[in-house]
Specification:
By secondary structure, the chain is mostly beta strands. The strands form nine sheets. The chain has a 22-stranded antiparallel barrel. The longest helix has 8 residues.
Length: 963
């Protein structure tokens, strides 16, 4: 028969999270002795269900009632989760295909992910963006295999080591399962969009205690449908049309398969910039396309008023057909686990798991333009490419000047595909020897990633244009396109061992002691396509890294119950990383049970995060910077080009390189929590916890803005076109030295800045037996962010930016949105074969006012968007949305509330049917101006992906049958 495990219906319930044996705290009759259990964040067993640390438990029932289809969706419902996560809905650039978690908004690198109490390997990425150097991909964890999720919302480096600064999320799979169960599920919104379907099977045999063994295996398959961005309607679609011009016209791009030609400004200058004053002589466009594709440029298309295409007929290319609300996805996984008793005092256990994730993203065919494009080899910047048609070239329409072009290779496929495989194998022993409990295991976890960029340009063929070949002949040449394939992998090989015991006697009982050690080898190898490595691919950055390191760790924990109602926990951990000073971090916790219904608790700990392997291994990411306002070629308003420049210099794309820094040191943190646990009745639990985490010496790339600002002092970090013919002039007509077009910026990794968060967590659990009317259970989980401060570099002023979009509130910073309130409330009523549940989820508003610029505090904050005013403290307000303040006078992203319901029926033998409806009232994702259109007038997502979703009213039906 199938074994059922029942957790107490409380967000404050706790259970085993470390080790491979999953002892569960079950509801016990009063006369039944309470078993000792492991509690998240400790290697010591205890009797009390509540320790000194704040923990949230998401049970299997919670998972079912949530309506979440993936682990990622489940984590997005957690109020303590930040908005700075990675999502696999769209092409995420460097983190393409990955989904991550970020507790307290401290970044994916500061949230440690565990599977059954042990580390996962970081995914095979080298994302240069802040907080993304270490990515634990949630896609490799099948939601259907989970028994529960335990979230330690406190710094935990003293127990787990590096990366646990913001907290720990432990995904715990089912165990000791017996029987067979099959399930199928399907979901979509009320428009039939965002459809998913999947199926899974469980099989298990044996009871560990009575039969001496248990083995189970589970498999899961699922897929999701692609949704065009234009079909995503459960957002403020009309508001985006009216304010941003998003999908307001058929406009896609002025660059199509019909070539445009640009005349060189002066012989040999390689400057093909054209403006409205000289476009009659320097620009040739043709309209040989179908009349249905012809448009006349206008500002309502999002084309800037200074564009040469305003009032000009051109061949439009519909790039919007390739934009996605979500890309195609396929997932498959299989997992097995076995436990074998070896006598009365020992067990052997083993786990094996494999998962495959496939994500496909569409994209428009590639283009070439008039500016020089930087190309990369695996080691450095390669030979740039710029299309230059010499006088007499068969395509050059200018008889006395060279020309460049704007052209799209419409015959080539765009887009990308990411295929990730994750393999995990674990084997170990555990048992008891005298008064000692012991456990040891070996873990190997590897992830591989094959990333394909379709239809990239092969430079040896492309360069033939400059040698006299026609664009038409090159477009028809099969060798001009190349699908670039990378081969990446990362892994960990780990041995760990620990022992624990009780000894001595204090006023509250015996002391507890645990000691352990861990040896871990980390490896990452990112190998770009050989054609890309040698510099033969047009305009595509690459990352080549091949490194490994060995980490040695040891820990100790001590529990001291000084009195029956007072206990303290002490923990310390030593970690040794190559080339880095041995790191020791301590943690202390205390709990005072004032009465049977009231307890106070507190923790203090230090934490660290070692530099990621990709940050200390030679190589590193190459990338392109976008939306740069070049201060040498653009006026201070960041919109007006200087004499000799163009509007592109105020919205520049340029190459950039990071690079390993062997002098990096670990990030350091301090965390404090204190709170109370109050149970005024047997059916009501209340937890209130204050938290504070401060992280210093954050490892991040240097800022391009700083490199440009300090160009005169450190010129080696900025590379420009050295041709004096392309230098610009100031307002007095004086030539600005070394002011050629920007080509590259160097931004190496460095320890810089700090982040501090403070807030309050509220957890309430209510459960009531209603007799013949069934049972009622309710949970409230809420997080209030009281303080969020970010310093870009050490010594910068730190101000409270909670409730704001950080990068706007302080113009000097780059940061995410930080709403003050996030809340989840759920209730369920069970009566016989029927169970009903309902939920309310709330995300608070976010201000878009600008208040500071590093050391400057504005006398009058002003909105980032709208019409420029004389009272604006800075001249660079975004004026592309003049109607914004008329629609949103408070200059903020509105709050968002969703109401969900569900029903479960078990009246047919062995069959369980579940219907879940999320966002029953079909509340649209709030308008956020930054996600309207980009600077090329291309429609963006239409919602803030870190805070909201575009699903609208969403239905999920699940059927489960047990044999």
């Amino acid at each position: 028969m199938k074994k059922h495990f029942v957790l107490k219906q409380s967000v404050l319930a706790v259970a085993l999270t470390l080790g491979s044996s999953h002892i569960v705290l079950a509801q016990q009759a009063a006369a039944t002795p309470t078993a000792t259990v492991y509690i998240t964040g400790s290697n010591l067993k205890r009797i009390d269900k509540e320790g000194a640390q704040p923990i949230q438990v998401i049970t299997a029932k919670d998972i079912r009632d949530s309506g979440a289809a993936t682990v990622t969706e489940l984590m997005r419902k957690v109020p303590s989760m930040g908005s700075d996560v990675n999502l696999d809905t769209n092409d995420g650039g460097f983190s393409r295909g990955a989904s991550t978690a970020s507790l307290r908004g401290l970044g994916s690198t500061s949230t440690l992910i565990l599977l059954n109490g042990r580390r996962m390997t970081p995914a095979a990425y080298a994302d240069p963006n802040k907080g993304n150097s270490t990515l634990y991909d949630l896609n490799s964890i099948p939601l259907s295999a989970l028994d529960r999720v335990e979230i330690l919302k406190d710094g935990a480096s003293a127990v787990y080591g590096s990366d646990a600064i913001g907290g720990v999320i432990n995904f715990i799979t089912k165990t000791n399962y017996q029987g067979t169960e099959v399930a199928a599920r399907a979901s979509a919104n009320d428009d039939g969009k965002f459809a998913r379907k999947g199926a899974n099977i469980f099989w298990g045999k044996g009871d560990v205690e009575s039969d001496g063994y248990n083995v189970f295996i589970t498999a899961d398959v699922s897929n999701r449908d692609r949704v065009k961005r234009a079909d995503v309607k459960d957002i403020e679609f009309e508001t985006y049309q009216q304010i941003n011009g998003r999908f307001a016209t058929p406009y896609g791009s002025t660059v199509s398969g019909v070539t445009s030609f640009y005349r060189e400004s002066a012989p040999g200058s390689k400057n093909f910039a054209v403006n409205r004053t000289n476009m009659a002589d320097r620009l040739v466009t043709r309209t040989t396309c179908d009349p249905s594709q012809q448009l006349v440029g206008a500002t309502n298309m999002g084309i800037v008023p200074t564009s040469v295409f305003i009032g000009r007929t051109f061949c439009n290319y519909d790039t919007t057909q390739f934009l996605e609300g979500i890309g195609d996805g396929k997932d498959a996984s299989v997992m097995t686990r076995g436990v074998l008793k070896l006598g009365q005092n020992a067990k052997a256990f083993a786990e094996a798991a494999y998962s495959r994730t496939e994500r496909a993203y569409t994209g428009a065919p590639i283009t070439i333009g008039q500016s020089a494009t930087t190309n990369f080899t695996s080691e450095s910047v390669g030979q740039p490419y710029q299309t230059i048609l010499e006088i007499g070239h068969p395509d050059n329409p200018f008889p006395d000047a060279r020309a460049s072009v704007g052209h799209r290779f419409v015959n080539l496929r765009g887009g990308s595909k990411t295929l990730s495989d994750n393999t995990r194998v674990l084997a170990g022993l555990q048992g008891t020897l005298g008064s000692w409990d012991w456990e040891t295991a070996v873990l190997y976890n590897q992830t591989t990633k094959e990333n394909t960029d379709y239809g990239r340009l092969y430079l040896p063929t492309l360069r033939k244009i400059n040698a006299g070949a026609t664009i038409a002949s090159i477009s028809a040449d099969p060798s001009v396109g190349h699908d670039v394939v990378s081969d990446d992998k990362a892994s960990i090989l780990q041995w760990d061992g620990k022992v624990s015991t009780q000894f001595g006697q204090l006023g509250g009982g015996a002391m507890g002691l645990a000691v352990g050690a861990e040896l871990r080898r980390e490896m990452i190898k990112l190998m770009p396509d050989p054609v890309l490595q040698r510099g033969d691919i047009f305009g595509l950055a690459n990352t080549k890294i091949d490194g490994e390191r060995d980490i040695k760790s040891a820990f100790i924990e001590l529990r001291t119950p000084f009195l029956k109602n007072v206990e303290m926990d002490f923990a310390g951990r030593v970690d040794k990383y190559p080339g880095i000073k041995t790191n020791f971090v301590p943690k202390v916790g205390a709990k005072w049970t004032v009465t049977d219904s009231l307890a106070l608790r507190a923790t203090y700990g230090r934490g660290f995060r070692a530099p990621a392997l990709v940050q200390v291994t030679p190589g590193g990411a190459q990338f392109f910077l976008t939306n740069i306002a070049d201060p040498r070629r653009c006026e201070p308003d960041e919109e007006t080009p200087r004499d000799g420049a163009t509007e592109l210099d105020c919205n520049k794309s340029a190459a950039a390189t990071g690079g390993a820094n062997p002098d990096l040191v670990p990030e350091k943190s301090k965390s404090i929590s204190f709170g109370l646990l109050f149970s005024p009745t047997s059916y009501l639990d209340i937890g209130l916890d204050f938290y504070k985490i401060r992280k210093e010496g954050e490892v991040a790339l240097g800022l391009a803005a700083d490199a440009l600002k300090n160009e005169a002092r450190v010129p080696g970090n900025v590379l420009r076109d050295p041709n004096p013919a392309n230098w610009v002039r100031d307002a007095n007509g004086n030539v600005i030295q070394n002011s050629g077009p920007l080509l590259m910026v160097k931004t190496p990794w460095m320890n810089q800045g700090a982040t501090e968060v403070r807030g309050v967590d509220l957890d309430v659990a209510f459960r009531k037996n209603l007799g013949e009317w069934g049972t009622l259970n309710s949970k409230l989980t809420s997080t209030f962010l009281d303080y969020y401060a970010l310093a870009g570099t050490a010594g910068d002023p730190e101000r409270n930016l909670a409730g704001t979009s950080v990068g706007y509130a302080d113009w000097n910073l780059s940061g995410n949105d930080q709403p003050r309130w996030k809340t989840s409330l759920s209730s369920s009523w069970s009566h016989g074969a029927h169970a009903f549940n309902a939920s309310i989820d709330y995300t608070g508003r976010v201000s878009l006012l600008r208040r500071y610029n590093r050391e400057v505090t504005y006398d009058q904050p002003f909105c980032q968007y709208g019409t420029r005013k004389d009272s604006d403290a800075e001249a660079n307000r975004d004026t592309s949305m003049p109607l914004y303040e008329a629609y949103f006078p408070e200059c903020s992203i509105n709050s968002w509330t969703r109401f969900g319901v569900g029903y479960t029926y078990t009246g047919i033998k062995n069959l369980t049917l579940n219907l879940n409806i999320q966002n029953v009232l079909d509340t649209k994702a709030p308008y956020d101006p930054i996600y309207g259109v980009n600077t090329s007038a291309q429609p963006l997502a239409g919602y803030n992906e870190g805070l909201h979703n575009p699903y609208g009213r969403y239905f999920q039906l699940t059927a489960r049958y047990a044999f």
